[in-house]
Amino acid sequence: VIRISCAGIRCTSRMKQEIAANIHCPIEMPQGGMFLWATLPPVVPVPEFVQACLDEKLAVIPGSAFYVDASAPCQGVRLNFSTPSEDAICRGVDIMARVLRKLFGQSVCSV
């Protein structure tokens, strides 16, 4: 149990570092659980971002999926750090950054 907890903490920290370095969007650190919440800039249409990530074989869950009213505006995405290795986390964040640059230009990645 301790080993799993330490791995989770390490992966959480690594995901936060990678997002801060490559995407520059706010992140909510979990009080428990196995997910991070990232808030994308208002210029990013989250459904389009999520689909573009899926096209790159990266699953990113839109925050609106967890709302009572899924049509309500939401700039958040939920990211899982419990299963991926640190290398997989780095690759996933690289994909998200590449998708943002491709769809919306370099400026969106330096919010």
Please give the largest β-sheet.
4 strands, antiparallel
Envelope shape? globular
Mean pLDDT: 77
Structural class computed from helices and strand pairing = alpha+beta
In DSSP terms, counting alpha (H) and pi (I) runs of 4 or more, how many helices? 3
Distance between the termini: 38 Å
Instruction: Provide the succession of SSEs.
Output: HEEHEEH
Helix content: 40-55%
Cα Rg: 14 Å
Short descriptors:
45% helix, disordered N terminus, alpha+beta, 111 residues
What topology emerges from the helices and strands here?
Elements lengths: L1 H21 L4 E2 L6 E5 L6 H10 L5 E2 L13 E5 L5 H19 L7
Describe the structure.
With 111 residues, the protein is an alpha+beta fold. The protein contains 3 helices and 4 strands, in the order αββαββα. The chain has helices at 2-22, 46-55, 86-104; strands at 27-28, 35-39, 61-62, 76-80. It has a 4-stranded antiparallel beta sheet with strand order 1-2-4-3, with helices on one face. The longest helix has 21 residues, at 2-22. The chain starts with a helix and ends in a 7-residue tail after the last helix. The model is unreliable at 1-8 (pLDDT under 50).
